[in-house]
């Protein structure tokens, strides 16, 4: 977060457990991070590392089987301590979501105009005609052509990129202070991806909305994020400004993620790099480094003691007993 800025969102020691038929699963393990007003923070990691669960936990959107602990402070208010009625007022108005798959997130039997209008009527108290006019303005804001015509269309009549833009229009309808964008460019071609990122940049500039970007696409992170938090097995394991993280990753897992990105300059043989092993399935919080079994630098300390989240040699916050200091080769 920018030095001296007030914290809009502060997550401290967030832990989420799910009860399953096979026992408890620790999805998020004491994750901590902060986000300032108007900032773009990327939460990255492999599938299953806890990114989406963390995002849903912010406003109590997890199922009843989830046991949540820790502190989540938004604009000075402790969200887990609020009644459901208060959380409903915050969702969509102060904190809005763009979910992963717009085809399943949008209602297939309601028109685009009705779905956007519902947000405006509920949180802004607008009447039908005013809500429709505002919905058309929002579609124009996110770059959808012929917005008045699109209001009467259904999600299946739109392309994937247009559905994603409709989701963003719904999310920013009430000018939220925080936009949580969960894989907003997944399954879209590169041209449409670039358009979606341009929309997010425009909204941030015009509305001042902070963005929590959840993704595994490091190219998207490099394009738009200011800071990056890396998650692994439910834990936050590295945090740094985006440029610094790409230049000098401190955690071996972060280095592995970057090395897995195809790069002809470094991968002369044309092959793809991978991180050996599998992400552990955790029932408890182990007193060890969760990456130890996949790490070539691990020793006895890594397997018997939990590393703290502290400054490493590159100046990043890193949860590692042996943080790396060597820059990534060009």
Structure, explained:
This protein has 330 residues and is α/β, with parallel strands linked by helices. It has a domain of 165 residues: Rossmann fold (3-Layer(aba) Sandwich), CATH 3.40.50.300. Helix content is 32%, strand content 23%. The protein is built from twelve helices and twelve strands. The strands form two sheets. The protein has an eight-stranded mixed β-sheet, sandwiched between helices. Strands 2-1-4-5 form a four-stranded antiparallel β-sheet, covered by helices on one side. Strand 4 and strand 5 form a beta hairpin. Helix 5 crosses helix 7 and helix 7 runs parallel beside helix 8. The radius of gyration is 21 Å and the shape is globular. The protein starts with 8 loop residues before the first strand and ends in an 11-residue tail after the last strand.
Mean pLDDT: 89
Largest sheet: 8 strands, mixed
Helix content: 25-40%
Supply the helix-strand structural class.
alpha/beta
Topology-level CATH name of the domain at 34-49 and 77-225: Rossmann fold
Strand numbers in spatial order across the main sheet:
6-7-8-3-9-10-12-11
Number of strands: 12
User: What fraction strand?
Assistant: 15-25%
How would the blueprint of this fold be written?
Blueprint: E1 9-20, E2 23-35, E3 40-44, H1 51-57, E4 66-74, E5 77-78, H2 84-90, E6 95-98, H3 102-105, H4 112-124, H5 128-141, H6 147-150, H7 160-171, E7 178-182, H8 190-207, E8 210-215, H9 218-224, E9 227-232, E10 235-241, H10 242-247, H11 252-259, H12 300-304, E11 309-311, E12 317-319
Parallel strand pairs: 3-8, 3-9, 6-7, 7-8
Antiparallel strand pairs: 1-2, 1-4, 4-5, 9-10, 10-12, 11-12
């Amino acid at each position: 977060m920018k030095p001296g800025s007030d914290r809009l969102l502060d997550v401290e020691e967030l832990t989420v457990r799910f009860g399953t038929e096979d026992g408890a699963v620790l999805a998020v393990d004491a994750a901590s991070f902060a986000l300032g007003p108007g900032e773009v923070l990327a939460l990255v990691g492999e599938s299953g590392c806890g990114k989406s669960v963390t995002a849903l936990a912010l406003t109590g959107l997890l199922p009843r089987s989830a046991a949540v602990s820790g502190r989540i402070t938004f604009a000075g208010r402790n969200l887990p301590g609020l009644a459901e009625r208060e959380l409903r007022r915050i969702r969509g108005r102060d904190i809005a979501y763009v979910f992963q798959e717009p085809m399943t997130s949008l209602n297939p039997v309601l028109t685009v105009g009705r779905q956007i209008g519902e947000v405006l009527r509920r949180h802004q108290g607008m009447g039908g005609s005013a809500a429709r006019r505002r919905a058309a303005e929002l579609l124009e804001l996110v770059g959808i052509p012929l917005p008045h015509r699109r209001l009467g269309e259904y999600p299946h009549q739109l392309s994937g990129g247009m559905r994603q833009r409709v989701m963003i229009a719904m999310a920013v309808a009430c000018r939220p202070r925080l936009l949580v964008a969960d894989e907003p460019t997944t399954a879209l071609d590169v041209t449409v991806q670039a358009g979606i990122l341009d929309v997010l940049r425009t909204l941030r500039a015009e509305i001042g909305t902070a963005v929590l970007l959840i993704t595994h696409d490091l190219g998207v992170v490099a394009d738009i994020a200011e800071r990056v938090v890396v998650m692994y097995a439910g834990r936050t394991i590295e945090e740094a400004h985006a440029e610094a993280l790409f230049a000098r990753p401190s955690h071996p897992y972060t280095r592995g993620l970057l090395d897995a990105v195809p790069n002809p300059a470094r991968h002369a043989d044309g092959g793809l790099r991978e991180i050996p092993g599998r992400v552990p399935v955790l029932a408890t919080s182990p007193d060890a480094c969760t990456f130890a079994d996949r790490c070539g630098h691990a020793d006895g300390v890594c397997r018997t003691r939990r590393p703290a989240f502290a400054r490493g040699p590159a100046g990043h916050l890193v949860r590692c007993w042996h943080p790396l200091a060597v820059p990534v080769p060009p």
